[in-house]
């Protein structure tokens, strides 16, 4: 094999034989730099996520990762990918250690980093192909699709899309959902690296132009998608209120004072009713309480029923109540209850995406060997089956409870079921003042643009918010402060292309990734036959 092919794998010279890679001594020579770049690219990607408005760092992080992976062997790509994942996820997910110590945090970050390692293995394989940034970005989306589904139902936290709530790429969410948005960021970053690498050689002007196109095309696509983003009222407006009652204390033990949490939300609703009566705020058409605002089952506990009913009667409009229902047999249910001021509880929605190791404990006996905190969850929650859209004084309000906002299908199915408004009742008190609440709020902003819906975010301890369909926050609370937000919001029924197409953009990108990996395999087989 010629030395030029060894030095420039994937350059398109000679036969399409797959290069064998650099000699062992040459391969190890650059490893310290590659390790530093892999970890640094992960740290840079972390810095691009909220609460920092540094979304523009993400393409540069992917460019650095591309520099690490291009031309590497599969095993090297996997190892560098794991290091990138740890540099990214260890700081991003540190909030999972709140109250339970480092073991769950380290375990989760490690498992997710191994999956990122598999993703980067795939990117290193396709990096020898012509136009490799296209294939590499598709492989990145395939890796995110895997992480959103496995293990234990998936953990989509850390998608590139969720760091772009303030970014110029955001309108692409309305066109192809979070998969297309992530693809655009990855393509821009990998294309940027390739443009810089190839552009240094004037003899490769065409290749440099193609690489530059890969970097610029996502920006052009985002600009072309801007007309899809609108906050115009299509079916009138409604006045919505979200209540943040606050909790007695942060951490896992806040549940020990469940009655105090319920009383806080009831009392803040009574105060809202007094403010309405005094003319200080307009009367809402409906109110949404957070997840776990009543961890006491009102169907079995008369005193909880009375407290909720009095608060709802005082405000005089339908209220969505977050509760935990404890049937005599079977799993617990994380339930939103539609409470009418006259009829009482009239409808329910059971959370469908149950958080593993938070609301249910897979492999309990095995996990207990590493942490006794698993027994804080003494009885597992069970998932609901159907999307929940509450009819609230002429408004169709879709319920997407907390963790569910990270899952494309959970949000989309709610909008397809007729939701004119999305509510994401959440409980972040467990995670204190960590960055978790801001990471989740960014997800909610992306979902607002993706489906062109107002998103209401009532949280027990903050940050609660009202998000317009264009992704802008118009009102928000402070953390660990009792408050209520009242805002006039547009009601919308138009479905964006992302809502109509659903998983099709993701499936298309998975086919692109499979095509790139298949092409790589074919080249390797042809190389071996030629060598033989």
UniProtKB/TrEMBL annotation:
GO MF annotations in UniProt: N-acyltransferase activity
Signal peptide limits: none
Gene Ontology cellular component list: plasma membrane
Keywords attached to this entry: Acyltransferase, Cell membrane, Lipoprotein, Membrane, Transferase, Transmembrane, Transmembrane helix
CDD domains in the record: ALP_N-acyl_transferase (cd07571)
UniProt-annotated location(s): Cell membrane
Stretches the record annotates as Disordered: 1-21
EC category name: transferase
Enzyme Commission designation: 2.3.1.269
Topological type in the membrane: Multi-pass membrane protein
Domain CN hydrolase: 243-491
Matching PROSITE patterns: CN_HYDROLASE
Top-level taxon of the source organism: Bacteria
GO biological process: one example: lipoprotein biosynthetic process
Transmembrane segments: 54-71, 78-97, 103-125, 132-148, 168-193, 205-224
Pathway(s) per entry: Protein modification; lipoprotein biosynthesis (N-acyl transfer)
Protein family according to the UniProt entry: Belongs to the CN hydrolase family. Apolipoprotein N-acyltransferase subfamily.
Function, in words: Catalyzes the phospholipid dependent N-acylation of the N-terminal cysteine of apolipoprotein, the last step in lipoprotein maturation.
Name under which the protein is recorded: Apolipoprotein N-acyltransferase
Lineage: Bacteria, Bacillati, Actinomycetota, Actinomycetes, Kitasatosporales
């Amino acid at each position: 094999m010629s030395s030029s092919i060894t030095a420039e794998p994937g350059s398109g010279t000679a036969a399409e034989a797959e290069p064998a890679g650099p000699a062992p001594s040459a391969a190890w020579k650059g490893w310290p730099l590659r390790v530093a770049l892999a970890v640094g690219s992960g740290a840079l990607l972390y810095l691009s996520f909220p609460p920092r408005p540094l979304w523009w760092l993400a393409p540069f992080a992917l460019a650095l990762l591309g520099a690490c992976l291009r031309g590497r062997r599969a095993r090297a790509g996997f190892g560098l990918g794991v290091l990138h994942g740890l540099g990214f996820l260890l700081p991003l997910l540190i909030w999972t250690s709140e109250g339970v110590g480092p073991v769950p945090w380290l375990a989760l970050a490690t498992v997710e980093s191994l999956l990122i390692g598999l993703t980067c293995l795939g990117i290193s394989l396709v990096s020898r192909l012509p136009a490799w940034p296209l294939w590499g970005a598709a492989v990145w989306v395939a890796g995110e699709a895997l992480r959103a589904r496995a293990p234990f139902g998936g953990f989509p936290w850390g998608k590139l899309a969720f760091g772009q709530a303030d970014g110029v790429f955001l309108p692409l969410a309305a066109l192809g959902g979070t998969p297309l948005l992530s693809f655009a960021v990855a393509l821009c970053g990998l294309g940027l690296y390739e443009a810089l690498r190839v552009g240094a050689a004037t003899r490769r002007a065409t290749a440099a132009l193609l690489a530059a196109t890969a970097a610029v095309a996502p920006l052009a696509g985002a600009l072309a998608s801007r007309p899809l983003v609108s906050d115009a009222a299509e079916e009138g407006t409604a006045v919505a209120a979200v209540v943040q009652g606050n909790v007695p204390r942060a951490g896992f033990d806040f549940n020990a004072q469940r009655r105090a949490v319920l009383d806080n939300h009831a009392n803040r609703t009574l105060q809202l009713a007094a403010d309405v009566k005094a003319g200080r705020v307009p009367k809402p058409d409906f109110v949404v309480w957070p997840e776990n605002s009543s961890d006491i089952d009102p169907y079995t506990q008369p005193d909880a029923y009375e407290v909720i009913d009095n608060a709802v009667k005082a405000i005089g409009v339908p209220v969505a109540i977050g509760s935990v229902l404890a049937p005599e047999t079977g799993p617990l249910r994380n339930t939103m209850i539609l409470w009418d001021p006259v009829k009482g509880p009239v409808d329910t929605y059971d959370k469908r995406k149950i958080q593993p190791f938070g609301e249910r404990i897979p492999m309990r006996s095995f996990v207990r060997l590493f942490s006794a905190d698993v027994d804080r969850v003494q009885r597992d929650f069970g998932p609901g089956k159907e999307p929940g859209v509450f009819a609230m004084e002429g408004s169709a309000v879709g319920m997407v409870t907390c963790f569910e906002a990270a899952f494309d299908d959970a949000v989309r199915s709610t909008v397809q079921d007729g939701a004119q408004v999305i509510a994401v009742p959440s409980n972040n008190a467990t995670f204190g003042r960590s960055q978790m609440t801001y990471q989740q709020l960014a997800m909610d902003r992306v979902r607002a643009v993706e489906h062109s819906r107002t998103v209401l975010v009532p949280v027990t301890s903050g940050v609660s918010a009202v998000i317009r369909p264009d992704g802008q926050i118009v009102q928000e609370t402070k953390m660990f402060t009792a408050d209520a937000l009242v805002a006039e919001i547009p009601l919308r029924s138009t479905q964006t292309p992302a809502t109509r197409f659903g998983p099709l953009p993701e499936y298309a990108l998975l086919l692109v990734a499979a095509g790139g990996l298949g092409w790589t395999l074919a080249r390797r087989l042809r190389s071996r036959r030629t060598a033989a």
